[in-house]
Automatic annotation (TrEMBL):
The gene is MEGF10. GO terms for cellular component: plasma membrane. The keyword Repeat applies. Residues 1-22 form the signal peptide. The keyword Transmembrane applies. It is a single-pass membrane protein. Residues 59-94, 102-137, 145-180, 193-223, 231-266, 406-441, 492-527, 583-613 form the EGF-like domain. It comes from Athene cunicularia. This is Multiple EGF like domains 10.
Length: 616
């Protein structure tokens, strides 16, 4: 089999335009047959039938090109492009990653600090002298310095060494290369650069500069002598000199007044009670009250509670103590003990100087009594008496104001009328039901009743209702709780309490009792019948009965006069009848005329007799 490979141009042409008749006995695995038994391989493949992949050092069609990649980079078998190993870059991976980057494709950012270098492959930090830590972010630990923090620090006495150079920075009070030397006398502070300021032999703290004074002196720079009455180291000792002897501020030694001697000037040069240069004069002091008599001048100084030239006078008010020289601190009228100055408080106050009023609820001497006031009354801290609030009285304010009074001391009179109750506190009125107004002087308005006139009357035919109870006041002729029932028949007037007096079946008006007469009657009590010829209600009908017929006033019916008949009596009796309602039959004979009135026979001539039956 022939391999067609070497001229790239001709192989490309053959690859693109293969002869139509080409035939390869072996199949071209990764390529095509371009001439009899000749395969054209795809890039990355080689071998007679294009079945072998390129090795790592070759690329391209038939693996005929040599890879150019450096530093262990792999080359693409098809294109020959280099795939760099971690930490490298460039066309042929010939360069390290740029500063500050590392890793695959140099994509990672270095994290090293303080000028450390960074490994281009792993990113590992290599620290400069003086630093440590994964990213060189830490100074060397105390006591170490230099490259890899491996060198030992030489500084003493708390000196701190520089993390790079190892140079010592000394604490205040020390100096020298390794801080081994204390400050020289008179200097202090950092580098011993400050000058001490202590006077009168005081020494200075080499670190802080603070002064330690020598005995007898005080102050920040030992510039002051001890205060009068004290001496020694830090002026902590108390002078013991008596009788106005002066005390030396350094040693405490006493310098006595004339007339006295002894270590503490405690000894009088003259015997007790005597004074003068030659101890020949008698003290003028009143001895029981005298503290001392001056051995030279004979001047008296008195015991507590006494004063005056001769110590025979008591203290003025407000003073106490030796020769009454001290001023009492007692306040609020307290007594002051002229000897001790102790205060005895007035009732209502307490405390050492009696400056504190008793707490609320307590009173009296020492504030030791408990108040007994009731109902928020104010209790006097002095004597516990109660000042009652409005509405209360009594010693302990436990009693309500008596009925009808109110206010402070129950001194005001209630003004509430009509049974209204008054507030003991402010005198306001609470009205009884049915009343209103500031003083309950007004009754409820029409139509209302009850407490605060808040209820509405519920009445139908009434003159309002009772302001207290709400009972309806019915108009005459009405009854019932709501005045909605007319009086029963025969009753009338207020409460339907009157009986009708009408006669002859008349009814009466429920409101005024006036009679309404039945037809045929008249008069105020309907006691009279209608006048003749009249009939009906109020007798206003006019009767129509004729021929002396009498009329029934009730139903206008006619009672005919004998001889007449008909509803209005206008018809005479029929022939041969007579009498009322023509009920009788005539008995007249022989042509006699029969009276329709009474049936009397009027005989024709020739006849006589009652019935004209006898001939004359
Ligand atoms: C390609 O050729 C090799 C020897 O060069 C042979 O072993 C292999 O079987 C062949 N592959 C095909 C598919 O013919
Ligand atoms: C101490 O002395 C050193 C060297 O003389 C100097 O560098 C430093 O500034 C001084 N420090 C102070 C607080 O004076
Ligand atoms: C105090 O004593 C002096 C001298 O003995 C005397 O004159 C004076 O009256 C006395 N005063 C009183 C208050 O006793
Ligand atoms: C007041 O208190 C003082 C000191 O506690 C005490 O001596 C005194 O007896 C008390 N007085 C009364 C009246 O309780
Ligand atoms: C009450 O009246 C009396 C006598 O008029 C008077 O002494 C007292 O101070 C009054 N009280 C008040 C609290 O007004
Ligand atoms: C009506 O009746 C009531 C209650 O029975 C009574 O208080 C009132 O006086 C009566 N009125 C009259 C006008 O009799
Ligand atoms: C009516 O009565 C009177 C006397 O009673 C009598 O004189 C008169 O004639 C009577 N009239 C009639 C129409 O009967």
């Amino acid at each position: 089999m022939k391999i067609l490979c070497c001229n790239a141009r001709s192989s490309l042409i053959l690859f693109l335009f293969p002869p139509l008749t080409a035939h390869c006995a072996d199949k071209c695995v990764h390529g095509r047959c371009i001439a009899p038994n000749t395969c054209q391989c795809e890039p990355g493949w080689g071998g007679p039938n294009c079945s072998s992949a390129c090795d790592s050092d070759h690329w391209g069609p038939h693996c005929s090109s040599r890879c150019q990649c450096k530093n262990g980079a792999l080359c693409n078998p098809i294109t020959g492009a280099c795939h760099c190993a971690s930490g490298f870059k460039g066309w042929r991976c010939e360069e390290h990653c740029g500063q500050g980057t590392y890793g695959n494709d140099c994509h990672q950012k270095c994290q090293c600090q303080n000028g450390a270098t960074c490994d281009h492959v792993t990113g590992e930090c290599t620290c400069p002298p003086g630093y440590t830590g994964a990213f060189c972010e830490d100074l060397c630990p105390p006591g170490k310095h230099g490259p890899q923090c491996e060198e030992r620090c030489p500084c003493q006495n708390g000196g701190v060494c520089h993390h790079v150079t190892g140079e010592c920075a000394c604490p205040p009070g020390w100096m020298g290369m390794v801080c081994g030397q204390p400050c020289p006398e008179g200097r202090y502070g950092k580098n011993c650069s400050q000058e001490c300021q202590c006077h009168n032999g005081g020494t200075c703290d080499s670190a802080t500069g603070q002064c330690y004074c020598s005995p007898g002196y005080t102050g920040e720079r030992c510039q002051d002598e001890c205060p009068v009455g004290t001496y020694g180291v830090q002026c902590a000792e108390t002078c013991k000199c008596m009788n106005r002897g002066k005390c030396y501020h350094i040693s405490g030694a006493c310098l006595c007044e004339p007339g006295y001697t002894g270590e503490h000037c405690e000894t009088r040069l003259c015997p007790e009670g005597i004074y003068g240069l030659k101890c020949d004069k008698k003290c003028p002091c009143h001895m029981p009250n005298t503290w001392s008599c001056h051995p030279m001048s004979g001047e008296c100084s008195c015991k507590p509670g006494w004063s005056g030239l001769y110590c025979n006078e008591t203290c003025s008010p407000g003073f106490y103590g030796k020769s009454c020289q001290q001023i009492c601190s007692c306040q609020n009228g307290a007594d002051c003990d002229s000897v001790t100055g102790k205060c005895t408080c007035a009732p209502g106050f307490k405390g050492a100087a009696c400056g504190t009023p008793c707490l609320p609820g307590t009173y009296g001497v020492n504030c030791s009594s408990v108040c007994n006031c009731k109902n928020e009354a104010i209790c006097s801290p002095v004597d516990g008496s109660c000042a009652c609030k409005a509405g209360w009285h009594g010693v302990d304010c436990s009693v309500n104001c008596p009925s009808g009074t109110w206010g402070l001391g129950c001194n005001l009179t209630c003004q509430c009328l009509n049974g209204g109750a008054c507030s003991a506190l402010d005198g306001t009125c609470t009205c009884a039901p049915g009343w209103r107004g500031e003083k309950c002087e007004l009754p409820c308005q029409d139509g209302t009743y009850g407490m605060d006139c808040a209820e509405r009357c519920d009445c139908s035919h009434a003159d309002g209702c009772h302001p207290t109870t709400g009972y309806c006041r019915c108009l005459p002729g009405w009854s019932g709780i709501h005045c909605d029932s007319v009086c029963a028949e025969g009753q009338w007037g207020p409460n339907c309490s009157l009986s009708c007096y009408c006669k002859n079946g008349a009814s009466c008006s429920p409101d005024d009792g006036i009679c309404e007469c039945a037809p045929g009657y008249r008069g105020t009590t309907c006691q009279r019948i209608c006048p003749s010829g009249r009939f009906g209600k109020n007798c206003i009908g006019i009767c129509t009965c004729t021929n002396n017929g009498t009329c029934n006033p009730i139903d206008r019916s006619c009672q005919c006069y004998p001889g007449w008949i008909g509803s209005d009596c206008s018809q005479p009796c029929p022939p041969s009848h007579w009498g009322p309602n023509c009920i009788h039959t005539c008995n007249c004979h022989n042509g006699a005329y029969c009276s329709a009135y009474d049936g009397e026979c009027k005989c024709t001539p020739g006849w006589t007799g009652l019935y004209c039956t006898q001939s004359k």
